[in-house]
User: Fold Peptidase S9 prolyl oligopeptidase catalytic domain-containing protein from Daucus carota subsp. sativus.
Amino acid sequence: MIKRGGRFSKTLYGSATIRGTVIVAFVVVVFLVLTLLFREDDGKGSSLTTVEKWNKFDNVVRFQPTMETINGTVLIWQIPDEPKAVLFLAHGCNGKAENFWDRTSSCLGCVGLPEERLIVLHALFRKFAVLTVSSFGRCWSFGSEKLVVAGTVKWWIEEQKLEKLPLVALGASSGGYFVSALATDLRFSSITLMIAEGLFSRMDIPKDYPPTLFVHMPKDEDRKLRVDENLKVLKKMGVDAAEIKCMEFPLSPAFLADRIPNLDRKISVELFKLFQEKGFIDKNGFMKNDGRATRWKAAANERKILSRNKDIFNHIQEELNLAFAYHEMTSLQSEQIFSWFESHLK
Assistant:
């Protein structure tokens, strides 16, 4: 036994106590920092730490899509080396297959909207073959079009000799409703319905309905209530169902440049300052309305900020909608979405 006593031992004990306190404090700080940097969405929303730059996948994944038209239906697709699954993507109203892909020599009409393109890049990076299809009209319909698309997807999978791979699907808005109905005609391992509660109240849900992930924006309170109800319905039937809630977040001067290909950082800063001056954002950088309800285009035209690059208006508006978090395609939760897909591959 060592007897602690005298001035020397007290000094040693005091020093050890201080060192211990410092070490504990340091560990706590490191833990908090790592938690903020690497936390996953807990269902309460995403933070700015999850925002990725548009070129995150440079030198890792490249767009090399194939585009073809089958019986009037536009298909655009890409298959990575050694694919492990097939992902079918359905756009929302006013969307098209070309929105998911950057413009290349094989797809001159592709426009690469920022959220759509990042979803595809995430998919290719994680070895999912990706198939996108354009709807017949402005939005998807649920009669003959559903049967045509189901047949087209089956044909394409057989043509590419991918029959042995699991099939998953993601649809946003109108595309989410479409995917929820398509799941009764195609055998999906799992599906993701984005900013859509599905058509469950209008259809007979089979017992083998696929695991369903709802990715929604609770600011849309009416849709949130319908998502909550459909979650209960599916779970009561024994269907594996879950949700991810996407919350609003503030803009920063570099945000638009970080998210949109070929948008200069200087222009991003100028737009941020314009939004501040015009009162489009509050003192903390949060959008007061989404991009569709904000006169930011007219204000940018007055300042001639984007006079040489008006083709990028739709890209900017999508990101403003995303920050407002009411109703927009989102790639911010891609890690969780693809982890959901992978956990249900069969």
